[in-house]
Fold each of these.
Amino acid sequence: MGAEILGGLALGVLLVAPPFLPSYFLEILISVMLFGYLGAAWNILGGYAGQFSFGHAAYFGIGAYTSTLLFLNLGVTPWLGMLAGGALAVVFGLFAGYLSFRYGLRGPYFSLVTLAFAEMLRVVAVNTKAVGSSLGLVIPNREPAPANFIFAGKLPYYYVILAMTLGAVWITRALSRSKLGYSLLAIRENEDAAEAAGVDALGMKLRAMAISSFLTALGGTFYAQYFAYIDPTITFGPSVSIQGLLQAIVGGAGTVLGPVIGAFVLTPVSELSRAAIRGRAGVDVMLYGVVLILVISFLPQGIMGWTRKRR
Amino acid sequence: MSLLEIDSVTKRFGGLTAVSRFSLGVEAGEIVGLIGPNGAGKTTVFHLLSGFHAPSDGAIRFKGVSVVGAKPHEICRRGLARTFQIVQPFVNLTALENVMVGAFNRTDDLAAARRRAVEMLEFVGLGARRDVPARALTLSDRKRLEMARGLATRPELLLLDEVMAGLNPTEIEAIIGLIRRIHAEGVTLLIIEHVMRAIMALSQRIVVLHHGEKIAEGRPDDVAHDARVIEAYLGASA
């Protein structure tokens, strides 16, 4: 009960406070939400099903490039483009997932294959003129046009990513109370025992992959519209993949709220260390790394695991 | 038609023949014991029946339909469940969640799966431990959990792989009682067991495997006095 009141309060603050925040804090909050969203998307495959993807940048990039290319070349609104990107990401995800799962790639081998798929797409993007090569793509006209996912100021973007994050959390909550959710946890724990108990491991993992890649692609479109610029390294590079999984692992993989909680802890740490240590490039990243090592050493189940233990 | 028909099944791993031309029929409502010295191929037979291995040769039919080439979850859905010799609970899930995974085999509804799981936990005597993570259960309780998870899938045939190994005499008595109650519920049982007293008391029929071959089959008393069986267990000079 206490947790519900706390959650309600937090949601109230997230809804009401942002218009009164200075621009700098609003930007940080948007980052928190985007990373929390990507973490929640990764969590469905990585946290629940235990399939540690190191290559979710593939879906993020597919989303970003699909909606942007459709908008720039055909004038399709990114609101529709993002669904097209999501669909394409699902197709790619199912292809990569089927190949990996069908041939029994588990654990680190699965991680490496997903990383390879994302890198493959990055190299393709770098070498394809039609998608802007390594220069990337710019969305030039920034006249506010809500119908085209272009807003005046940052506040509307905040509410969009807040809604997306709440949606991802809601989906995760529904998943955690469904046959699919229980099946995924069983697969994560012990795939053979899950199969023996009647769990269609391949089918369930592919379902998790489809949901996870779809949501991640929507995040890619949001990124493209918010920053109005994408390039192969930003969207298909390993750092996107790592950001997603970090939020989930630090916050608590395989929990409903873990990834969002993780983002609320990690993003400010990253921002603060960057602000505190100016002029010495890389030191802030080292500090960030130390925080990560501490969290993973002392809270192997993430922050959510820690709160559960104390209950 | 027998519930389970194993027809001259052979399983080779490279040069090793683990099971050789093994045949067995199990009728609905029976309790059949599968015994034999270590390495006789008993667990391999279970792996073959439950879809974890494919036979090199021969046929296996459950309810008249071949299970060769079917995946473990498909076989489970057809009504053939198993436990593992080395218990394999989902250690980070609670006892209830463990059994719910099995219950979801017959329903998509959370509340129905929960009800079924609670019922099965009560049945095996783990009702009070339902919210305990499986990793915190004793070996005896883990074996019960394994049986509850199998039962939650509503099997017609349940394969029990050494559910008494490592337990003390009191726990063994309790498991024997539990197996009788499972049988009374109408579940057919094929049991691998090294605890002779238990398997002799439970089984209507016993099959003896040695070096992958069936060397004896019959009523417990007859099998216990079979010269080849005594030789297999005690060595050639006995």
Amino acid sequence: MDLFEYQGKQLFARHGMAVPQGEVAETPEQAKAAAEKIGGTVVVKAQVQVGGRGKAGGIKIATTPDEAYAEAEAILGMDIKGHTVKRLWVEAASDIKKEYYASVTFDRSAKKPLVMLSAMGGMDIEAVAVDHPEALARLHVDPFTGFQPHHGRWLVYHAGIDEAAQKGVLQALMQAYAAFIDLEATLIEINPLIWTADGRVVALDAKVSIDNNALYRHPDLADLQESVTDDPQERMAQERGVTYVKLDGDVGIMGNGAGIVMSSLDVVALAGGKPANFLDAGGGSDAEAVATALEVLLSDPKVKSLLINIFGGITRCDQVAEGLLAALDTLGATLPIVVRLDGTAAEEGRAIIADRAPANVVVEPTMLSAAKRAVELAKEAA
Amino acid sequence: MSILVDENTKLVVQGVTGREGRFHTLRNRAYGTNVVAGVTPGKAGQDVEGIPVFNTVRDAVEATGANTSMIFVPPRFAPDAIYESLDAGIGLTITITEGIPVHEMMRIYTHLQRSDQQLLGPNCPGAISPGKATVGIMPTDVFTPGRVGIISRSGTLTYQISKEIGDMGIGQSTVVGIGGDPIVGSSFIDILQKFEEDPDTDLVVIVGEIGGDEEEKAGQYIAATMKTPVVGYIAGFQAPAGKQMGHAGAIITGSSGTAQGKKDALEGLGVQVGISPTEVAEIVRDRLG
């Protein structure tokens, strides 16, 4: 689960990290009130979970509350790379002397936490990593010993942090690592971590991702979860707990398990078709899961044919067939549906479809033939 | 021969009295696996259709000599169950449970590196040596005894590839699901090493997917070490590019992680890669002659 900047900063503050004073605003009036409360110059920042906000005009400085009102009016509703701005974070402007980069992330390759620090923060840290790898100090941490002050000192010295800022940066790293552990985060990124004219070290941005599998023991974080998509099918899928991603083709695809669904997308493309989506109904798909998945797929008007590709393991193919029939009964879909069933109870499943399914449902014996058929039928319907 | 599971497997099942645990335990036994014990705290003295239940893994090992464990307990109790299995000296722990927090897995993985015990999974379908033993949730009738080894990150794709190969009359020595989570106990390399040492495996198929860099690492290992031929499959060429939060991920992974990146990396190291399950089966058939 990815958090918004303001949520990340609020969590940072709870871990003792210095962040600028700020307020959330969802209307220009609220932005103006926030600016009045904070006093002085403020920064009005679009809250979207995508990079490049500044370049897109989503971050503006306001010297008066009226300016904050005007900037908020301009930014709210703005589309930044497909994300509509619904919320702002209004915070006290900072007097920046230097911009650093700091992050704690789960390094999937090393299977350990990785702490990174650079004196060349701000824009384009990825370019810094490529062009000046020596400017980005990296250190893996043993999850049993944790992040000790000597780790922090090593990073601070090797990243070339200005001497007068070293103590503050070290403290920020310790706090960031503590937050990473406490929140069961997979990413804590602060870019920039600033050194201010009056000598403080402050987190000026916050990118925080939390491990979804750990949310059960962080109810306060689970409450922060909200839908960030505007797409009707993606919203519907999220509400019903189905793993769904929309694509731009016309062959709707569902399967049981991420691997076989990804593979189905590839095989549809190899057969000359265009996948409309990725939909994983789950490893233990029962009749109800299948019905829910179908409802999501059939609500997309772009879909011209459906490919249902099931290889039963835990999933029973007879239950999939029952779920399909039940869903078609209620939804009354007439578009062509190609079904491929293999594995656990596949023969029973095929028999159920042969006996009772409407004429628009056809069964194919293999994944390849099913994909080809679904592509042909989508082309005929187009 | 075969690897990991065979007629010498003595299986203890943690979470044997749960619905899923019981169902798959009995299926494993019906296939021929020697299931010697189950563990559910507080249920010692009971039995599951003749399989004795113990309170702890240690009790089960002492009473039955179990050498392999299968874990079916819910995610919030699974880390404890894995440590319990390791502490009881079980050589191979197979974790079916899906949804274990990644911070737990970082600690478990670090702990594992300090021993010579092996963990398969979590979030894996288990392992089967056709005709000998199966431990896990795989639909057994897909597999036939033979001389091809299969290692896969995805459950359903394991079945798909095995079936396509099987349809050509080619059987498997052992099929291993290593699991799809960001951290799993055994990598492609760990299992490739075992297949390389197995005189009854003539060819290995690695079934990968987008994300991480384990396929790329496996390619390096294959090129440097393996004499047994290896064929690859990668799923996810059409998968939407995942939204990357922040820059840290991009800094550490570079271009690895995409299906095309993995295919290019493997082929650059001399590992032939099929782009559909059918093509993989055809390559396997041609390579075996």
